[in-house]
Amino acid sequence: MSPTTLSSVASFSVIALAAYCFFRYFQWGNRCTRSLPLPPGPRPIPLLGNVHQLPMDFPYLQFRKWGQMFGDVFCLKVFRRPTLVINSIHVAKELLAHRGAKYSDRFSSHLITVMGFEVATAFLGYGDTWRRHRKLMQVGLGDQDALARLRPVQQREIVGLLSRLSQDPDAFDSHLKHFTAALIMGSAYGETEDENILRYAETILHTLVTVITTPTAVVLDFLPFSKYVPSWVLSGLFNAGLLKTRPLLVHVMDSAFEDARTRTAAALGKDKASFVAIATEAQTLKSDTNSDNDIKVAAFTMFIGQSNSRSFSAITLNSFLVQMVTHQDVYAKAQRSIDEVVGKERLPDLSDRNSLPYVDAILKEVYRLINLGIPRRLMDDDEYRGYHIPKGTSVIANIWQMGRDSNYYKDPDTFNPDRFIDPKPGSLVELDPREYIFSFGRRICPGQRFGDDSMWWTIASIIATFNVKKALDADGKKITPSMTVLPGLTSHIQQFPCSIQPRSQRALELIAESAIHLE
Ligand code: HEM
Question: Which pathway does this polypeptide act in (predicted)?
Answer without folding.
Answer: Secondary metabolite biosynthesis
